[in-house]
C-alpha cells in the first residue's frame, strides 16, 4: 500500500454547496435544488470575476507570447519603409509600380488548449484553505480565459480511472463559463482511482492536430511514462503537479487511523514514530523526483504547486520561461 495515497481518516466535506452531479441539474425544481443551482451560479460568477481579472492584468499577453501560433501567413503588401527586411520585398508589385513594396505577414494564432483534469478521489484531499481539486479548478479557469482572450479554442478531458467526460474544444465566453460550471460540479461515476495512461490515450485519439495540453493531477497513478512520451511527441505537453503539504509530511499527533482515499483500505499509524515520518517524507521526495524525470525525458515541462502556494507566481514564471 503506497503511503502517499493515504489521507487522514476524517469526514471530507465532499457534499458542500455546488459539489453535485450533472444529473441533479435536470431534476424537478424544488426549493433545495433551486438553492443548489443558485449556489453553483454564484460560485461560477465568483470564479469568473477572479480569474478574468488575473487574465486581463497578468496572463493575457504572457500566454500569447508563451504559446506561438502554427506559423506565419500572408496578410497584405505595403510600401517599403526604412528598416524593413529587404527579404520581404514583393518584386512583382515593385516592378508594376516602380515603387518598392514589401509583404506583411501575421502569425496564424488560432491554437487549441486542452485541459486534462484529474477528478479522482485523491483530488478531494486538502488541509489548507482549499483542496487539490479547488486549486486545479482555479488554474483551469485562468488558463481558459487566457486562451479565449487570444481567440484560441478550449476543450476538457475529465478522468479518474476512466474517461469521465469529454468537452470538445470551442471558443467563446459562454463555452468557458460552461467549462467552469463542470469543473465545479463534476464527480466521478467510475472507480475513484487514477489512470493517467487512459487519459493520454484518449487525448491522442480525439486530438489529431497538435494542441497545448495541460495535465493537472497529483500524479498518483501507475506507470504512465510510455503514454506520456507518445503524447509529448504529438502535443505541447505541460504537467501541473498539485499536492498538499500533508502529502509530504504528517503532524506529530500520535496514533491515528488513515484511509486510502482511492481504494478505501485503512490502517493505523504512529505519527510520533520518527522512522515512519522519515520514510513518509522520503517516499514523497522519491515520487516527486520520478514525476519530474518522466516529463524531463519526454521533453515536457512540469510545474509543482502546493495548495498553500501562490499559483499566480508559478504560472508567471512558467510563461516567462517559454518566451524566447
Describe this structure in words.
By secondary structure, this protein is an alpha/beta fold. The chain folds into 2 domains: 51-66 and 110-322, 3-Layer(aba) Sandwich (Rossmann fold), CATH 3.40.50.410; 72-107, no CATH class. Helices cover 42% and strands 22% of the residues. The strands form 3 sheets. Strands 6-5-4-7-8-11 form a 6-stranded mixed β-sheet, sandwiched between helices. The two termini are 44 Å apart. The model is unreliable at 1-31 (pLDDT under 50).
Q: What level of helicity do the residues show? A: 40-55%
Tally the helices: 9
Classified in CATH, the superfamily of the largest domain is: von Willebrand factor, type A domain
Number of domains: 2
Average residue pLDDT: 81
The secondary-structure class comes to: alpha/beta
Which runs of at least 5 residues are low in confidence (pLDDT < 50)? 1-31
CATH architecture of the largest domain: 3-Layer(aba) Sandwich
The CATH topology annotation of the largest domain reads as: Rossmann fold
Strand order of the largest sheet: 6-5-4-7-8-11
CATH class category label of the largest domain: Alpha Beta
What is the 3D shape? elongated
Can you summarize this structure?
This protein is of the alpha/beta class and 324 residues long. The chain has nine helices and eleven strands.
Write the layout of secondary structure elements.
Layout: E1 6-8, H1 31-66, E2 72-79, H2 91-97, E3 101-107, E4 112-118, H3 132-149, E5 153-159, E6 163-170, H4 173-185, H5 196-206, E7 212-217, H6 225-234, E8 236-243, H7 245-248, E9 255-260, E10 266-270, H8 274-297, E11 301-306, H9 311-322
Helix pairs in contact: 1-3, 1-4, 1-9, 3-4, 5-6
Amino acid at each position: 500500500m503506497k503511503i502517499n495515497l493515504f489521507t487522514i481518516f476524517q469526514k471530507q466535506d465532499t457534499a458542500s454547496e455546488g459539489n453535485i452531479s450533472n444529473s441533479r441539474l435536470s431534476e424537478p425544481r424544488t426549493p433545495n435544488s433551486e438553492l443548489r443551482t443558485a449556489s453553483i451560479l454564484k460560485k461560477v460568477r465568483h470564479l469568473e470575476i477572479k480569474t478574468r481579472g488575473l487574465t486581463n492584468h497578468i496572463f493575457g499577453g504572457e500566454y500569447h507570447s508563451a504559446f506561438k501560433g502554427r506559423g506565419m501567413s500572408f496578410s497584405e503588401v505595403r510600401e517599403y519603409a526604412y528598416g524593413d527586411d529587404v527579404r520581404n520585398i514583393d518584386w512583382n508589385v515593385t516592378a508594376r509600380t516602380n515603387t518598392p513594396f514589401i509583404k506583411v505577414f501575421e502569425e496564424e494564432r488560432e491554437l487549441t488548449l486542452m485541459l486534462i483534469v484529474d477528478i479522482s478521489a485523491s483530488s478531494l484531499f486538502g488541509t489548507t484553505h482549499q483542496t487539490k481539486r479547488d486549486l486545479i479548478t482555479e488554474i483551469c479557469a485562468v488558463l481558459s480565459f487566457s486562451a479565449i482572450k487570444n481567440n484560441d479554442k478550449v476543450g476538457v478531458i475529465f478522468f479518474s480511472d476512466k474517461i469521465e467526460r469529454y468537452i470538445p474544444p470551442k471558443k467563446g465566453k459562454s463555452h468557458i463559463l460552461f467549462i467552469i460550471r463542470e469543473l465545479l460540479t463534476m464527480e466521478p461515476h467510475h472507480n475513484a482511482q487514477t489512470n493517467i495512461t487512459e487519459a493520454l490515450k484518449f487525448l491522442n485519439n480525439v486530438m489529431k492536430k497538435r494542441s497545448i495540453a495541460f495535465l493537472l493531477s497529483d500524479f498518483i497513478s501507475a506507470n504512465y511514462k510510455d503514454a506520456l512520451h507518445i503524447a509529448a511527441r504529438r502535443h505541447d505537453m505541460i504537467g501541473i503537479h498539485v499536492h498538499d503539504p500533508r502529502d509530504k509530511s504528517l503532524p506529530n499527533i500520535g496514533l491515528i487511523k488513515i484511509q486510502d482515499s482511492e481504494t478505501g483500505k485503512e490502517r493505523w499509524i504512529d505519527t510520533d514514530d520518527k522512522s515512519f515520518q522519515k520514510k513518509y517524507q522520503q517516499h514523497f521526495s522519491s515520487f516527486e523526483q520520478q514525476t519530474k524525470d518522466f516529463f524531463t525525458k519526454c521533453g515536457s515541462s512540469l510545474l509543482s504547486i502546493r495548495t498553500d502556494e501562490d499559483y499566480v507566481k508559478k504560472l508567471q514564471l512558467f510563461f516567462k520561461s517559454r518566451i524566447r
